[in-house]
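Memo to structure team: turn this sequence into structure tokens by end of day. - J.P.
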Amino acid sequence: MTTTLPAPTPAPPGEDRPDELLTADFYGYENLLPEEERTLLLKARAALRDEVKPLVNEYWAKGEFPRELIDVFRRLGLAGLPYEGYGDPLSATSNLLVGMVSMECTRTDASSATFFGVHSGLAMYSIFRGGDQRQRDRWLPAMASMDTIGAFAMTEPLGGSDVAGGMRTTARWDGEHWVLNGAKRWIGNATFADLVVVWARDEADNQVKGFVVEKGSPGFTPVKIENKLAFRIVENAEITLTDVKVPEANRLQRVNSFRDVAEILRATRSGVAWQALGVMIGAYELALAYATERRQFGRPIAGFQLVQDLLVKSLGNITACWGMLVQLARRQDAGIFRDEHSALAKAFVTSRMREVVAWCREIFGGNGIVLDYDIARFFADAEAIYSFEGTREMNTLIVGKAITGQSAFV
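Reply from structure team:
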């Protein structure tokens, strides 16, 4: 059976509008968005440039999250975009717009984008996909308006890649409440979130289930992780859960096993690939601008062959990854999207991102390790994106199983 993918909607005449296109959008991928969606993307681009970018280096250096970012994202109304009935009139719009918004956020700053992605992607989608209608109506409107901030707690101090089969955090029904015990680590937003989606293994049936733990719950203790060399704006926490009581009304009703959790991770993993593209674009734009301004031997270094080689290789990676992600978004919209599709994108795009940020940092020479020039932040933050939402090795094995029919997992 052949499935026909929907054709992209081109921008109206006036087409390339070079004054608005990103320098790195060499093939004009943004023109695949219909005008209304592209207008929203450009609105986000302006706000991120004018209101977010001026903040990030100061807070990145301090290792603190600027709370004023919440107001910026609230005014943009982006959190409800993927969820029909829970946001802007454009809610339930194309996955291509959702992906490009993620790219745009990360193009400015990966830490700020991760705060937003944890809230609007991991936390909101867990409730949208795993909650029943009553739970959606209870939490999602306030999350879409960003009056309620969410977090997502799966990774554990002793469990990352093996968390599907080795989750140590437990849930026990005592006749009146669920009682959670265990620990989570690397949980973004957890130090200030109003609610945290916590994943735990039910002692009764050994299946993973989801629980919404609200701020201030007794026994729920988040402690900020210090001394990070990447994602310094993100307030990641280690969480201790000691006899935390959660009512049945806060158990996600449509999650009964890790198979249901995997449905959530499939969608969010593709969002991380879009974030990696944004990091590449941000680093490339910085390097291109620097190369045209920096003079050595009496002329701009942009005129040197080896510098041009680094820039062109970076642009090639960006363009190839953008094409992959556009097609991935179209498959999501067409309903023919599987685990291996997002796994390949995450593994491939983050690997290319690592190359690009290294090449772009190289163009800066010694200035490339100074925060004032921004590129050092992109270089460091890329390492975090490379590792989370499944390592390259784990995503490679997901794709390997799909194409060979043989599982290489141990």
